[in-house]
TrEMBL record:
Protein name: Trypsin-like peptidase domain-containing protein
Claim: Cell inner membrane is one of the keywords in the record: no
Tagged with keyword Signal: yes
Native source species: Ramlibacter cellulosilyticus
The entry's keywords: Signal
Length: 305
């Protein structure tokens, strides 16, 4: 089980939930312990206590559930010929289908920075396209593993497919019993996609997953405040492992760093609205942070259902 270090508290005032207009206390988002420092002798003091604690506890409970459905993705190239090789590409991934063990990640986490055009030059003509050739090579020769946290026993995983049209890839955990909590249905749940057709106006998001801490070590991304995301698709040319793609993406003010790629972007209901793709530095050092829209995730998954 992923260690949360969070202490959940209950009180007689924690009735049917938070009232409208109450907001998250951002000072409590990363606390290992939440101490209820409240003045309960007056109605105003009690209302203030509930107004600060309930939304924050609701957030952290929902965050904890989603966080337990995210994994470190590690890829080792040419593992078939060199079993002792160390992972050379890594990122995040998340569970989208509990019963089938399906995990979504970013395509570029698997493709890495390799020059696949040169590597597969002699075999590409055997396949319909370069993506299919890459998919075949990864399936046969690469070792793909998931971890619930750095240092935990890796879970063997197979590549189901990479998407030609977006920065997405689908993995499958080959032995669900290898996942801690897999027999506890209430704790081992896929993260739901936002319902189809739900509006995108006033979208605020967070990202969860892992990030690089140096020397290949991965640590959990710390909880974010919900941050505005733009609903307009940003068309453009992007490099994924030395390959050019034109992939419409969404942008957000959230900061994405190495290792976040492939992790879920969630709305305020903790539903998936996208997948972390990357960041781009512009002139003037401003940074755009991009994620694949959930519509692309849904279209990709529909091929396997």
């Amino acid at each position: 089980m992923k260690s949360s270090g969070w202490l959940f508290v209950a009180c007689a005032l924690c009735i049917a939930g938070a009232a409208a207009g109450q907001s998250i206390d951002v000072n409590l988002l990363s606390k290992e312990k939440i101490q209820a420092n409240c003045e309960l002798n007056t109605y105003v003091g009690a209302e203030d206590c509930v107004g600060r604690l309930i939304p924050t506890l609701n957030y952290r409970a929902a965050y904890y559930a989603a966080d337990n459905a995210t994994y470190i993705v590690r890829v080792t190239y040419d593992a078939l010929n060199n079993p002792a090789a160390r992972p050379s590409s890594f990122g995040s991934g998340f569970l989208v289908d509990r019963d089938r063990g399906f995990v979504i990640t970013a395509k570029h986490v698997l493709v890495g920075n390799r020059d696949w055009t040169s590597l597969l030059q002699s075999t590409t003509n055997q396949f319909a396209n370069l993506d299919t050739a890459i998919e075949d090579t990864l399936s046969r020769t690469a070792r793909i593993e998931l971890q619930t946290s750095d240092g935990m026993y890796p879970m063997p995983t197979r590549l189901v497919a990479i998407d030609r049209d977006s920065d997405l890839a689908l993995l499958q955990i080959t032995n669900l019993n290898a996942i801690q909590l897999s027999n506890f249905k209430a704790l081992f749940q896929a993260i739901p996609l936002v319902p189809e057709g739900k509006g995108c106006s006033d979208l605020k998001v967070i990202a969860i997953g892992f990030q690089e801490a140096g020397a290949g070590v991965m640590e959990r991304r710390r909880p974010d405040e919900f941050t505005k995301a733009e609903c307009l698709l940003q068309a453009g040319t992007y490099y994924i492992g030395m390959l050019k793609h034109r992939i419409p993406l969404l942008t957000t003010g959230l900061k994405f760093t190495a290792g976040n790629s492939g992790g879920p972007v969630l709305n305020e209901q903790f539903q998936v609205v996208g997948v972390v793709s990357g960041a781009k530095t512009n002139l003037g050092d401003s940074i755009n942070n991009y994620f694949v829209p959930v519509s692309a995730v849904r279209s990709f998954l529909n091929r396997f259902r």
